[in-house]
Amino acid sequence: MSEKLTGKNYIGNLLASSGEITFKTYNPLLNSENSTLFTEASNLEIDHAVHLASRAFTLFKDTSNKERASFLIAIAEEIEALDLTLLNIYCQETGLTKQRALGERARTIQQLHNFAQHITTGKWMEASIDTQETNSQEIAKPDLRKINIPLGPVVVFGASNFPLAYSTAGGDTASAFAAGCPVIVKSHPMHAGTGELVASAILKAATRTGMPNGVFSNLNSKGIEVGLQLVAHPLVKAVGFTGSIQAGSALLKLASERPEPIPFFGEMGSVNPVILLPNELKNKGYDWANTFAESITLGAGQFCTNPGLILGLKSDALDDFTHHLAKKTQEKSPLCMLHPNIHKNFENNKTTIRQQKGVETITDFNTPIQENFGKQTIATVAGSDFLNNKTMHQEVFGPFSMVVQCSDKKELNDIINRLEGQLTGTIIGDSEDLQSHSSIINNLKNRVGRLIFNGVPTGVETCPSMLHGGPYPASTDSRFTAVGIDAIRRWIRPFSYQNCPDSLLPDALKNSNPLNITRRINGIDSLKSL
Amino acid sequence: MSEKLTGKNYIGNLLASSGEITFKTYNPLLNSENSTLFTEASNLEIDHAVHLASRAFTLFKDTSNKERASFLIAIAEEIEALDLTLLNIYCQETGLTKQRALGERARTIQQLHNFAQHITTGKWMEASIDTQETNSQEIAKPDLRKINIPLGPVVVFGASNFPLAYSTAGGDTASAFAAGCPVIVKSHPMHAGTGELVASAILKAATRTGMPNGVFSNLNSKGIEVGLQLVAHPLVKAVGFTGSIQAGSALLKLASERPEPIPFFGEMGSVNPVILLPNELKNKGYDWANTFAESITLGAGQFCTNPGLILGLKSDALDDFTHHLAKKTQEKSPLCMLHPNIHKNFENNKTTIRQQKGVETITDFNTPIQENFGKQTIATVAGSDFLNNKTMHQEVFGPFSMVVQCSDKKELNDIINRLEGQLTGTIIGDSEDLQSHSSIINNLKNRVGRLIFNGVPTGVETCPSMLHGGPYPASTDSRFTAVGIDAIRRWIRPFSYQNCPDSLLPDALKNSNPLNITRRINGIDSLKSL
Question: Which residues contact A168 (CB under 8 A, 6 or more apart)?
């Protein structure tokens, strides 16, 4: 691995490695460890990073939107400047292709720019002014002004499957910085090198744009201890997490049971149900089988919106679809998975599902394939067997999907109503299908964060209208999104000033409207000054 | 009490009392029980009410903003129509005056109208549209449209001190209805009669405006069991609570530990620190003492924003202020408290504080006063004694305030930084004071939801710029408010449609913009159709 890597933690601007626990990342393609030795952050380093963040907050919270926008853009520039050094390590730590690295880097840079642009408009602050009213009959009503302010230091847990876009400088970090919250990243052990490089880019950008030391720290972790310490630390004020339901739920519990409970946003697992409606299935079943074979195997199925569950009404058309889907899926070349552990879990979870009553495997690889490569698998089961077997409702992270044959609409509806919360739900149907299945569509809507018509759930656009989240356990709080500019809302709180002298108000609330932003004045949106 | 009261639960439109636990409300002025026998909701009734709410949700969530606005206005009308029947029972159950009853009724009606008007504008939905992009070099980006939708059935726990405005048809219920969420109220045992009457008004309004049965239920409770059952019920999707830190924190824990954790918003206790800065204290100390004597004793101090803690720098001026405050406070006639239990807790909590090291009581009543009346009390203590004694940081619900004499600015800052989260903080100072104490103002801002300059914290306007909440334990989630139109945000979640046929979209997202509302189209606010 590159001589650029130190294996140390960034405690603010300083590299430190006083801890005793060490680890290496793994190259799943070569099936061997990478060379850099990483040192897990010690308890003292964790505490130091959080205290630095808390002190940095007193300055960072009062930086202007423009200043923070420059910081975000500088981060994007510094990430690009890492160029091949970053791309190579990304590939070495994940087994993913360079093309995927480029795509994810572009997404990360796009997100940083989106938040920079968003805060420059000032809209995130939602400035609201109610002027004093003096009514002869009543006591004078006070002057009240409300604005969104940052919560404080945020801890970010990145995802294994997106070392850039949902990790060190990913959406959680970018949105927290945009709000004015310092960030402490618990670096993902599977891509600690990628994390260290991105951290160095963030810190260069922070220095270059005059941000206070402590605005960012990057802590290595081999196991769960660093994360637990961070979530429990009294000076941490919010947590962003992307990962498994098991880990996310445990951390949510910890965050809720602190002496001071704090907001915890976790984006967790999902099987992303797809409903095949009968007309469309009959007329275009083969085309959809081709499309879903692509979606299921994309990136070795390692996406949180991977379609792991396909529901249809028992019929010849559904049988044909299932077998064509299996055939097309089998034709794909297996891909390397992120890590031997992820590969092992994939095979174990698949085995568990395949051992459930009524489950029939349609396709699997019987021939040996390369170590750490995921064998894509399509299974099928009757709706009656699926309905009450919660084991089958679990996500299998990897290229796996199960087709459920429902005996009738009622059973289909029952299954939808018993599903846990999902990131996405997908409806495949022609206009007649959609008209005659409105209760199914309605019920699915109730279980998901995003409803897709005649498309695949993989692919999460970073646009403002994206909702990436959903009812528990897709996320820990369905009122927020992890993707898109509204993701900033996780890290802010409204704050009211009553009868505050103009000179002490933040610019956004001053009478003269020096930021020239739209404000809600006595309930009406307006660009006016007062 | 009025023959209008049945003492039964409303399970949707039906009165029921199959339970075995009964209780009566109490008239603290007469020091005797009221006559109506109330029956606590049975487990079956609780389950029935929640199932009805869940079924009602499937219809209620799709009512138009206008329909729900009519419902809210009809509730206001039906509450007014109860007239003296309501006002009399309110007074009998609380010991509060008719004038206070009228004021609180006006506030309740105002809130219902505010939410009716707010949803009519459609703004709460935050409609957002990103149109399809077809770029020759890339895959076509999908059409994405986002809108806020209601969470589902909401359970509301009302406050003891606001039987109307923060209870059965108070801000939590009004905002949940506005969003399209059915409501199940756990009626407060101290004002079960007031609750039953208001519930009857809500149900009349629901019938009159064609809302589905189950949109509202009112459940009596003697102890904590009904509330626990409701928060744990799998079909309940959110909880609104106003009350003590102890009860609120226990319910928050329960809501977080459900198999499906749900949003819990609790507005809890606060001591509402007031900082007296030196110039203003020296020049106008007497005037402020008069003003705070009013604020501390208003409504027998039974307000969540009562100023329970006054901080200043040790000086003759602070001594003079304290003694004048004590004198003016003592001159007020003691008032009846809401209930013998509340009175007992007030006296006990006051005694606990007065027994702490260094606490000196400046004024108290040595002469016997009427049963259940609160003896207003002013105490004082040195900053060094206050700083690390967490017992003294606790709220004493009632007419009590403690003046803390800080030895210097540093000690004052240390105290502010160690305070728990507060609903409000107040700064009393002239322009010179404000300039020379910016770090104190900044630190106080970090601990509170609303910052008041040269005024009293009592009085919570219902305007859009109000924030009633704050860092834990003032509220369980500082990102939301209990008062003002933005209180609706507690009960809604964003939802995305991807490539949805126009005919299946809600009106707010349809191309033709039939609601004629402002929408965010490709990131820009616009009234346009597409």
Answer: A156, A158, A185, A187, A194, A195, A198, A199, A202, A218
Find out whether A209 and A67 touch, Cβ atoms under 8 Å: yes
pLDDT digits (tens, 9 = 90+) for B311-342: 999 999 999 999 999 999 999 999 999 999 99
Put simply, the chain A residues between 90 and 149 with a CB less than 8 A from any chain B CB are 128-130, 139, 141-142, 144-146
Q: What are the structural domains, with CATH classification, of chain A?
A: 11-132+142-268+481-489 (3.40.605.10), 273-453 (3.40.309.10)
* Interval A363-379: pLDDT, tens: 877 677 899 999 999 99
Which residues does chain B have within 8 Å of residue A494's beta carbon, measured at their own beta carbons? Answer: 449, 467, 469, 479-481, 486
User: Confidence band (pLDDT; 50, 70, 90) for A57?
Assistant: very high
Side chain identity, residue A181: C
Residue identified by tokens 């660093």 is A226
- Whose tokens are 């209620």? That residue is B60
Task: State what percent of residues in chain A have pLDDT above 70.
Answer: 98
pLDDT at position A61 over 60: yes
Q: Tell me which chain A residues have a C-beta less than 8 angstroms from the C-beta of B129.
A: 465
CA-based diameter of chain A, in Å? Answer: 88
ipTM of this predicted structure: 0.96
DSSP type of residue A224: S
Of A392, A419, A391, A423, the C-alpha closest to A303 is A423
Residue spans of chain B under pLDDT 70: 1-3, 134-139
Mean model confidence pLDDT for chain A: 96
- Asked if B349 and B396 count as a contact pair (C-beta separation under 8 A), the reply is yes
Whether residue A445 lies within 8 A of chain B, CB to CB, comes out as yes
Whether residue A302 has pLDDT greater than 90: yes
Q: How far apart are CA B228 and CA B250, in angstroms?
A: 9
* Average pLDDT over every residue of A18-41: 97
- The least confident of A121-135, A251-265, A375-389, A437-451 is A121-135
Q: Which residues, 6 or more positions from B62, have their beta carbon under 8 angstroms from its beta carbon?
A: B180
Q: Are A265 and A249 in contact (CB under 8 A)?
A: no
DSSP codes joined into one string, B380-448:
EEEHHHHHT-GGGGS---SSEEEEEEESSHHHHHHHHHHSPPEEEEEEE--HHHHHHTHHHHHHHHTTE
Confidence tier at A12 by pLDDT (50, 70, 90): very high
Amino acid identity for residue B227 in this structure: G
Could you give the residue ranges of the DSSP H alpha helices within B233-305? Answer: 245-257, 278-297
pLDDT score of A133 more than 80 = no
Please judge whether B256 and A252 are an interchain contact, meaning their C-beta atoms are less than 8 angstroms apart. yes
Q: How far apart are CA B494 and CA A496, in angstroms?
A: 25
HEC secondary structure over B61-103: CCCCHHHHHHHHHHHHHHHHHHHHHHHHHHHHHHCCCHHHHHH
Cα separation of B120 and B447, whole Å? 35
Q: Which residues of A touch B451 (CB under 8 A)?
A: 495-498, 500
CA B178 to CA B488: how far, in whole Å?
7
Task: Cite the beta strand spans of A127-171 per DSSP E.
Answer: 128-130, 144-150, 154-157
- In the set A45, A104, A267, A280, the catalytic residue is A267
pLDDT of residue A140: 72
**Residue that the structure tokens 């809209």 belong to:** A123
Instruction: State how far the Cα of A77 lies from the Cα of A79, in Å rounded to an integer.
Output: 5
The reported pLDDT for the residue numbered B140 is: 72
Beta strands A38-39; A22-23: pairing state = antiparallel
What's residue B136's pLDDT?
A: 52
Q: CB count, 10 Å around CB of B431?
A: 12
B369: left (phi over 0), alpha (psi -120 to 50) or beta: beta
pTM over 0.90: yes
